[in-house]
Amino acid sequence: MSKAPPVPEDQPLTEEEQRRLDAIREAHRDRIAKHNVHYLTLLRFLRGYKDDPKPVEKSIEMLGKMLTWREEQKVDEIVATPLERADEFNAIWPTGCHGFGKNGNLIYVDRVGSVDPSKLMGKGGFTIEDVKKFHIQMMERVNRMKEEQYARTGIVRYKNIVILDLGGMGMGHLGSKFTSPMKSFIQIDQEYYPESLYQMVICNAGWILKTLWAVISPFIDPLTKERIKFGTKHLEEIIDVEQIPRYLGGKCKCAGGKCLVAPFEAGYNPPRPALTLPAQPNANANAASSASSSSSSSAAAPASSSSSPATAPASSAEATRATEAASASASAPDSAVAASNQAQPAAP
Ligand SMILES: [Zn+2]
User: Fold this and answer.
1) Over the stretch 163-174, which tens digit does the pLDDT of each residue have?
2) Which of 21, 108, 232, 347 has its CA at 20 to 30 Å from residue 100's CA atom?
């Protein structure tokens, strides 16, 4: 049985959704504040379980599980602390954010095929707990970047594109040194970061995976299947060529052609997509969310309407955070360009 299609990310909240969001927020009010759970995260938990027979209860349950997991795993600490041997890990497992898709979704590149399992978890390598920490830190950083984008543009984009590069994958990847971290990543992503995937493009897949996919794909939910494409040829359907890594046939401008060498902070900071929006979200728009949105002009406006209720922070704390992030990013060299030059991506 297939589910209803996902709600477009920036679709304004319906009255029903707003009621559900209020209930979710009320159920975990203290912990949401304690862990600075962002509005975009609440939206993922709201919309990720919309097809459940009891959507509000399910969202509350899963958000509660996520918060408990954060506390048990000390996720806030993992995010705040530089992890030991990070350079070594990044060299073994290159990952990172690499620009934005045509629709404004952050692109995350994972060169998983290049991982040498014996270096990763062999003698002198990393433990499964270490590897999980790197993954959690990366997932949190991806979320921070989406939150920064929201603060800067007011546009709601809680999903990201994943480019999964399997180039280099071989029989060595069938052993537990590789499959056990992969299993734990899948579990973490599904349970604690729901509704995060916009589209996955799997590149350089060998014939084994393609054959396997042909066998299992009839049993996969059609909507999930729609989000997974095989082959670099699909990259340009959703990503401008300037944002695609050169080694995958794109024309990115990463220094020396070395994408993901220094992931995130010091890495490639490509031009942001053209989005016609003010620099920060309009907190007053929240008031509009209690009114009927179906007949308002903002609901009928294109996705770029910043006054749509879905783009408004739903609490004063979130508004403050969003504003702080917006002012923090105002000093970034690209933000002024991004705000003023909407027609053309600026040079990095
Ligand atoms: Zn690049």
Assistant:
1) 999 998 888 888
2) 21
Ligand 1 mean position, distance from CA 246 (Å): 6
- How far is ligand 1, taken at its centre, from the CA of residue 166, in Å? 17
Q: For residue 308, give every residue at least 6 positions away whose Cβ sits within 8 Å of its Cβ, in sequence order, or none.
A: 10, 11, 12, 285, 293, 298, 299, 301
Question: How many angstroms does the Cα of residue 140 sit away from the middle of ligand 1?
Answer: 21
- Is residue 346 domain-resident? no
| 84, part of any domain | yes
pLDDT band at 160 (very low <50, low <70, confident <90, very high): very high
Gap from CA of 297 to ligand 1 centroid (Å): 40
CA of 243 to the centre of ligand 1 (A): 7
User: Would you state the pLDDT for residue 67?
Assistant: 98
What is the pLDDT of the chain when averaged over all its residues?
A: 77
Q: Specify the 3-state DSSP secondary structure of 198.
A: strand
pLDDT at 62 over 50: yes
Question: 258 alpha carbon to ligand 1 midpoint, in Å?
Answer: 6
323 is a domain residue? no
- Rounded to the nearest angstrom, the distance between the alpha carbon of 193 and the centre of ligand 1 is 26
Write out the residue range of the structural domain in which residue 257 sits.
79-266
Q: Is the entire prediction scored with pTM above 0.85?
A: no
